[in-house]
């Protein structure tokens, strides 16, 4: 397995490393590098800069990203099945229509990221910031979501049926067309939810305190 410590890498250098199979990159600068369509399955990126990198349609199945910075990176339609991202910052990155089946995101920042129509079956989200992100049409059915912040996110058309929310936030999220039947929302912050949105949570489980907060928005008192 090829290894690279530091240095600025572009498409030519990455292709050369790929000739020997999966590689390990540590502290490398891949900022704005064009890696679109490359097969980087099983690669490991440690503390690398991927800011504005182009990874559209790249194959990154089983890859590991640890402590990487990838703001504004473009991973649209990339194949990220079973990929692991730990302590990474991919703010405003695009994962639109990417395949994230079986991927795990832990301790990551994806503020403003675009995950529109991404394939998310078996996706695991732990302690991840998705504030103001776009997840329109994403399915997290039966997912166990731990410490995930969806504040202000566009969750239109998302499928959260039978999902469990633990220490999560849906504050001011846009939930038009989203489905929550059977979801356990007792561990979610529903602040900012309008009564017009309440019907979209039909069939979900909420706590008595959450229910009282919703009723209070009508000016009624629960005694």
Structure description:
- The protein has 223 residues and is mainly β.
- Helices cover 9% and strands 15% of the residues.
- The chain has three helices and eleven strands, in the order βαββββββββββαα.
- The strands form three sheets. The protein has a seven-stranded parallel β-sheet with strand order 1-2-3-4-5-6-7, with no helix packed on it. Strands 8-9 form a two-stranded parallel ribbon.
- The longest helix is centred in the C-terminal third of the chain and has 9 residues, at 208-216.
- The chain is elongated, with a radius of gyration of 19 Å.
Topology of this structure?
Blueprint: E1 2-5, H1 11-18, E2 23-26, E3 44-46, E4 64-66, E5 84-86, E6 104-106, E7 124-126, E8 144-146, E9 164-166, E10 168-169, E11 188-189, H2 195-198, H3 208-216
Parallel strand pairs: 1-2, 2-3, 3-4, 4-5, 5-6, 6-7, 8-9, 10-11
Q: Which band does the percent of strand residues land in? A: 5-15%
Major sheet size, sense and barrel closure: 7 strands, parallel
Number of strands: 11
Q: Could you report the average pLDDT, rounded to the nearest whole number?
A: 92
Oligomeric state:
single chain
Order the strands across the largest sheet as they lie in space: 1-2-3-4-5-6-7
* Class from secondary-structure proportions: mainly beta
Low-confidence stretches: none
Tell me the series of helices and strands, N- to C-terminal.
EHEEEEEEEEEEHH
Radius of gyration, whole Å: 19 Å
- Euclidean distance between termini CA atoms: 66 Å
CA-based shape: elongated
Q: Give the helix tally.
A: 3
Helix content: under 10%
């Amino acid at each position: 397995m090829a290894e690279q410590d530091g240095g600025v890498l572009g498409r030519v250098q990455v292709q050369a490393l790929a000739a020997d199979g999966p590689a390990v990159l540590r502290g490398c600068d891949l900022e704005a590098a064009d890696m679109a369509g490359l097969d980087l399955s099983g690669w490991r990126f440690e503390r690398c800069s991927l800011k504005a990198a182009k990874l559209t349609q790249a194959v990154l199945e089983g890859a590991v990203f640890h402590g990487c910075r990838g703001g504004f990176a473009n991973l649209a339609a990339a194949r990220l099945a079973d990929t692991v991202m730990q302590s990474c910052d991919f703010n405003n990155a695009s994962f639109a229509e990417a395949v994230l089946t079986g991927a795990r995101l832990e301790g990551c920042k994806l503020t403003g990221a675009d995950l529109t129509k991404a394939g998310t079956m078996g996706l695991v989200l732990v302690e991840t910031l998705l504030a103001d992100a776009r997840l329109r049409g994403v399915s997290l059915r039966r997912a166990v979501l731990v410490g995930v912040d969806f504040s202000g996110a566009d969750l239109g058309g998302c499928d959260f049926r039978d999902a469990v929310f633990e220490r999560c936030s849906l504050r001011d999220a846009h939930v038009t067309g989203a489905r929550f039947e059977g979801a356990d929302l007792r561990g979610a912050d529903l602040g900012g939810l309008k009564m017009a949105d309440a019907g979209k949570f039909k069939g979900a489980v909420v706590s008595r305190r959450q229910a009282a907060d919703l009723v209070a928005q009508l000016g009624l008192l629960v005694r």
